[in-house]
Design goal:
It is a single chain. The protein is an alpha+beta fold. The protein has 2 domains: 164 residues, START domain (Alpha-D-Glucose-1,6-Bisphosphate, Chain A, domain 4), CATH 3.30.530.20; 35 residues. It is built from 5 helices and 7 strands. It has a 7-stranded antiparallel sheet with strand order 1-7-6-5-4-3-2. This is PRELI/MSF1 domain-containing protein. It comes from Argulus foliaceus. InterPro entries: PRELI/MSF1_dom, Slowmo/Ups.
Length: 218
Amino acid sequence: IEEMKLFNQTTTFCYSWDQVVGAFWKRYPNPFSQHVLSEDVLERRMVGRTLYTKRLLVKTNSLPKWGERFISVRTLPVLEESIIDLDSKCIRTFTRNIHHKKVMNVEESVTYEPKNNLVETLVTKQAKIMSHIYGFSFAIEAFGYERFKKNSSKANKGYIHILSAIHDAKMPKNSSTDTLERVFEETKETFKDVARGKAKLAKGFANSPLYVHYRHEA
């Protein structure tokens, strides 16, 4: 039986789902997520009123002294896949590290759904933290769980910080449809070039769960 650490969390954002989806692509940078160094779009497609996106995030990878014997690098690439469905008003993301999975494999899924007659948004987050290093897996998973919990809190604070900066400053509010269509139109030409430059990297992601899902949807 495979052992792992499981993380479950529900959070309520005091912003409507339309506001949350409008700020989704503006989450980084923010003061609470300085460990996120870069973000690149590998692929994006809009099918009907559903937007599918695959991004590569690069994050810092701070480790305790004992962890340096297993991983020497200080940055870690992470694959983030998302589905934004305007009709069902649901954002789903699936995130996982793509290197050093034997040492620590972290798989996270998050959903954002309307709550309380659409005036708030319910955020449901789940994660699995696994290690396959014999004799050290328990310690590595415990460390990974605590770090994930800390970073999850930072991610929520960062998202709320961006939402507050946009809406509490009384900036113009776009509908979720306008926001998604504008993002798609502004970037679709860029993604042609991105797809060429990232083709080799993208091949390694072809079997990821959300990618398989959206190929069937398309």
